[in-house]
Give the backbone structure.
Amino acid sequence: MKCQRCEKSATFHITELTGGKPQEHHLCEDCARQYLTQGETQPSSAPSLKGVLANQLKVGQTAEELARLDQRACPVCGITFFEFRNQGRFGCPHDYVCFGEELEPLLMNIHGETEHRGKKPQTHTGDTDGKTDLIRLRREIKSAVAEEDYERASNLRDKIKTIENKQAES
Amino acid sequence: MDLNKLTETSGEWLKGSGPDSDIVISSRIRLARNLADFPFISRATELDRSEIEKRLRGIVRGDHLPLTLHYLNVAELTEVDRQFLVERQLISRELAESSGARGVAISQDEQVSLMINEEDHLRMQIMHSGFDLVSAWEQLNAIDDAVENKLTYAFNEQLGYLTACPTNVGTGMRVSVMLHLPALVITRQIEKVFRSLHKISLAVRGLYGEGSQAMGDFYQISNQITLGRSEEELIEQVSDVVPKLINYERIARKFLMKENQESLHDRVSRAFGILSTAQTISSEETMHLLSSVRMGVNLGLIPDLQTPHLNELFIHTQPAHLQKLSGVELETADRNIERARYLRTHLNREENGQN
């Protein structure tokens, strides 16, 4: 894909989330830098993924590194970092764990903090990442059925039932 | 729950009670929560969505909650009914316009609404008339605990409650106060006020949330940050600026009354004149003129009208309300005629009532 502003190839795919509908920009590294820094003089109404990308540019992340990162997918829900950047929405709770490192500058940019200080669940306490296994298993059933591997699908269904029953008891 | 019954009232947020209710319309808090063992909505299959809806429906209708809620299957409602709930701020535009299994549980007094399968699996909202965040939070916090007792929320020790969008992670809490600021708009100070609010990371939105224009000079001030502060701190952050904004608006009103009373009185009277005699009128023009009249009433420039009655006109002249009140579906042109008729009847009735 070509850069929208010049003849070079577009290596930055920016989704502008501030104001109205999400807008997509496909730019080369130079034009992206220009685009991302122009906003700094204007009063920004809301922190955006754009701002975070600007931060990543500042710490010298190269286009290749970003491209590699874009390919990474969550083992639980299958969302890639590229899809997340495009939609601005995560696919499942495990994304916060598997993209944890990349997320930190983004959270810093939006919230100025990375540690929760509010209330916590009273009954079902503690970290719930273990529960995302169920999301992965349900997704595996879907692909097993698509591949007509009904035996595997049935095994997976039993596995889910066992986990769900165990949870219901606890 | 009979939606037609609701049309007769103006809803909690336009009740017009509480201190400073001429400027502060309502206080609202919402919490975003997700089930730990399901994907977020964007990656959820049809099957996931109906399973989430089924589980949450069972919980929000249960009798372990500290209040009774009425459940509405949003997917099965007519377009007018969905729009009607949006106008009353009981559901978001996003929930009204999306597809698939989704619903909302609403309390009879319309203070509480729990949306299922919006951007997050569960969005819990509480709305009180006037400036009343502290008791609103007490009530919502108790509902949150009662729901959590029956299921496992997606939670991370470091990041708090996990949400579909990282802008909501942590507390998942949005605290907002809706203000009527017509004098700051007339004196062109509103932009300056917004810029200073953005600097302390508070967001400003129009009447119907993100992306909507500031119809009728109504503005919602809310927190931008959700992570790294406690719920009480977030409430405090919004609460702290509200008295200042009230004060700015009062100063601007006083200034207009002192320096420019004739032109202000003229503006307000003309607005009233159009509203009480027009034969066809759009929703936007109605909001714009009602805003002037509302301020005029608060400043004593128009006698014999009450703020709650005006608040009711704001909501009853919205497209879906108008159609439900008249009992038929109407095209835009017919709605404008019906709206003008409604306004004439109600504004002239008020005057006659005093005789």
